[in-house]
Amino acid sequence: MKLTRPTLYGSRHAVSAGHYLATAAGFAILEAGGNAIDAGCAAGIALAVLHPDEVNVAGVAPIMIRTGAPGGKRGKVVTIAGLGHWPKRFPVDLFMREHGGKMPLGILRTVVPAAPDAWITALADYGTMSFGDVAGAAVRYAREGFAVFEYMAAMIKQYEDGYRSWPSNAAIFLPGGKLPQVGDRFVQTDLAGTLQYMIDQERAASKRGRLAGLAAARAAFYCGDIAETIVRYHEENGGYLARDDLANFHSRYEEPLSVRWRDFEVFTCGPWCQGPMLAQALRMTEAAGGLKGLAHNSADYIHLVTEIMKAACADREYRYGDPLFVDVGMDELLSDAHVAARVGAIDRERAMPDMPPPIGRYPGNMPPPAAASRAKSDAVVEPDTSYCCAIDRWGNAMSATPSDGSWRSPVIPGLGIVPSGRGTQSRPDPSHPSGVAPGKRPRLTPNPAIAVRDDGSVIPFGAPGGDVQVQAMLQVFLNAFHFGMDIQEAIEQPRFATFSFPNSFAPYTHLPGRLNIEDRLPAVTLDELRRRGHDVEMWPALTRRACSVEAILLDSRTGFLRAGADFRQPAYAMVS
Description:
Helix 5 (131-144) packs antiparallel against helix 9. The chain has helices spanning 20-31, 36-50, 94-98, 115-126, 131-144, 150-158, 160-164, 167-173, 189-205, 210-222, 225-236, 243-247, 276-287, 299-319, 330-333, 336-344, 469-481, 487-492, 523-531, and strands at residues 8-10, 14-17, 63-66, 77-80, 146-147, 185-186, 253-254, 257-261, 264-268, 388-391, 397-400, 449-453, 458-462, 496-498, 514-518, 535-539, 550-554, 561-564, 572-575. A 7-stranded antiparallel sheet has the order 1-18-17-13-12-9-8. Strands 7-4-3-11-10-2-19 form a 7-stranded antiparallel sheet, covered by helices on one side. Strands 14-15-16 form a 3-stranded mixed sheet. The chain has 19 helices and 19 strands. It has a single domain, classed as 4-Layer Sandwich (Glutamine Phosphoribosylpyrophosphate, subunit 1, domain 1). The protein has 576 residues and is an alpha+beta fold. The radius of gyration is 22 Å and the shape is globular.
C-alpha cells in the first residue's frame, strides 16, 4: 500500500494533533522551551476552537501524562479524568419519570464542565508555562478565524437541525442562517472573549507567581463572571447546574490501569471511560494465541479481532461505570480466568450474532439488554472528540482526548461555549452501571493511552470516534508492534469496526452482528466474513468514521522520535 505521508523522524520533540493548526500551536510551545505538557495543553485547547463541532472549551479533556525518565529510570504515569459529574441536585429519576426513559436533547444533558480545570491542573502540576502562554494560539484562531474543512462542514450539515434548535448555536455555526462551506472563515468572537477573560484574570494575579496566576484563570471560569453567566442561563432555562457544582469541581487524578502485553506496559484510563477495553482486548489477543499465523487484515484476523471486541464491549456494557459509584471489578475482568472464558467462547468459524452474555456478576439491576432489530441502519459514529499528543526532549509524554459536540445542547449566549453535554453517555435508567445519578460521572468514550516498552521506548496514542476509538487504537497498535509497520503505515491501513452492542451515545443504537469495513479489502475477504455470519457493510475507502489515530513513538534504541497523523481528517504531526 502506497502511503500518503511519511513517518516523520526527529531527535528533539514532537507533536501530533487532529488539526494542523493545533499541532502548530503545540510545536511553537516546544520551540519556545516548554515541555510536552505545556505543548499538549496548547494543542488541546486549540482543538476546542478548530474542531468546534466535536470539541468544546467547556467540555471534557481526559489527560494521561508520563513523566520523563532520565538515567534510565522509569517515569511515572498519571491520569487526570477531565470529566465532570451530574449536578448535585439533578433528580435521579427525571428521565424515567418525565421523559419515558429517554434523554432529550438540550440543557438537561449538561454535566459540570471539566476541560478548563483539567488543562490548568496539568499545567500547574506538570507544566512550566502560564495559561496565557498555552491558550494564546486558541484565542487567535477564535478571534481571527480559520478555514472550514471538509469533515467539519459535513458534520454541521448533518446536524443542522440541532444547531438551529437554539439561536445562540445557529449564530455561530450557521452564520447568516447558512451552512458554512469548505474554505469559509469560521470566527468565534465570544469564545475568544471567554478565553481572553481567563488570561486577563491570570495576568492580574501573576505577580504572586505562576501557580497563583493559574488558580486565578481557573477561578475566572468556575467562580467568576463565566460561572455566573452559565448558572444564570441554567436557572432561566430549566437546567440544574448550580454555583457550587462549578466552584467545588476539581478534575480527579485517577490511577491508570495497566496490563502487560509482550514487552510493553500499556496504560489506559480507568472504567469511568472505555479505556480498559483496550487492555482487555490486548489480553484476549494473547490468550487467543497471540495472532500467530494470521495475515494482516485477512478474514481470519478480522474475524478474531471483531469477536474479541464484541467480548470487551459486552463487559463495558455490563460492568463499566464511575468507580466512585459502581464496583466494576476490573481485577476480575483482567484476570486469567475471565480472559480465558471470553476467548473460549469465540468460534473461529462463526460470528457471534450479538455481543456475548455477561460472565460473572452483573452489577446493575437490569437484565442484559435484549437483542435489537437487524433492520438496516447506519452505524452511527458521533461527530465528537479530537486527540493530541506530545513528547519533549526530556522524555515527558502527554496524551489527551478532548471532546464534546456543540449540537446537542445550547451555547451560552455571550460566552461561545456549550457546558459539557456529556450526560448523553449516561443511561436514563439509574439502575444501569452507567446510569444517571447526582454527582456521578457518565461513562466516557474518549480514552487516551500511553505504552512503555521495556527498553524505555514510549508511545502516546489515541483517537476520536466514539465506540470505534478503542477498535482503531487496537488495530494501529497491533499494526505497529505485531506486524512491524512504521507509525504512519500503521495508521493508514484499512480499518474495520463492530457495532454489535448498544451505542455509548443516546439513543444507544444497537446493531447486532454489524461489521463496517473501509472499502479497500479484496472481495474474497469480505465474502468470507459474510459466510461466517458477519453483517458486513462497507464504509468509503477512507472515512473519519474509522477514527483519526495520532501517535508518537520515542524509540530508545535509535533515539529518534517517530510521529504519525491520520489522513482521515486534517491531522498533522511536527517534529524537530
